[in-house]
Design goal:
binds flavin mononucleotide, 10 strands, about 190 residues, alpha+beta, 10-stranded antiparallel sheet
């Protein structure tokens, strides 16, 4: 058995290396959800926070992924840091962060990103870029120099990991795989053939 912190500490040490080595977006991770008829659906999102309670990302709740998550909270995350030749896979349920947490993160974003959250009807059809530009101009004028509040349709999810797999590139494709399975307040571990 491994203690609760072990895979998070290991993730943190790999993430710190990735922040030094990756060309850009070391926090980018693939997020896989499922459609109502059971088809996989995946896209990249950015990891914005993590600790032993889980891995946090933010998005538009009315986007495809947002709707999928409200029907089925089970997700898979995947980090691939090419510069390190390392992969981390995470599986678990995504639950909404609190309004207070989402507000605090939203207010830490650049003003342009906050306006963008209002302007983008993420995942819905758009006639052309001019529509987005017009909406950005409208919301910029609406909020003028005042506060830009968090739209209610924009928030975050925390993925509570039940499985975390660490994969390291090895010579001759003999990669190293270590899997942590959540077991109450601790983890069982196993190694897998590559
Ligand atoms: C590197 C990268 C990071 C991204 N980060 C986010 C993110 O944090 N949140 C988000 O909603 N979309 C993010 N996107 C855009 C998504 O991949 C996706 O296009 C968008 O969220 C719509 O997905 P959906 O239609 O499946 O909901 C990112 C895209 C890339 C390439």
């Amino acid at each position: 058995m491994a203690d609760l912190n072990e895979p998070f500490d290991l993730f943190n040490s790999w993430f710190e290396m990735a922040k030094e080595k990756e060309l850009n977006d070391p926090s980018a991770m693939n997020l896989a959800t499922a459609t109502p008829d059971g088809r996989p659906s995946s896209r990249m999102v950015l990891l914005k926070d993590f600790d032993t309670t889980g891995f946090v990302f933010y998005t538009n709740l009315e986007s495809n992924k947002g709707k999928q998550l409200s029907a089925n909270a089970q997700v898979a995350l995947n980090f691939h840091w090419k510069s390190l030749r390392k992969q981390v896979r995470i599986e678990g349920a995504a639950t909404p962060v609190s309004d207070e947490e989402a507000d605090a993160y939203f207010q830490s974003r650049p003003r342009g990103s906050r306006i963008g959250a209002w302007a983008s009807d993420q995942s819905r059809p758009m006639e052309g870029m001019f529509v987005l530009e017009r909406r950005v101009a409208e919301f910029t004028a609406k909020f003028h120099v005042g506060e830009v509040p968090r739209p209610l349709h924009w928030s975050g999810f925390r993925v509570d990991p039940q499985l975390i797999e660490f994969w390291s590139d090895g010579k001759f494709r003999l990669h190293e795989r270590i899997v942590y399975h959540r077991d109450g307040d601790a983890w069982t571990t196993e190694r897998l053939f590559p």
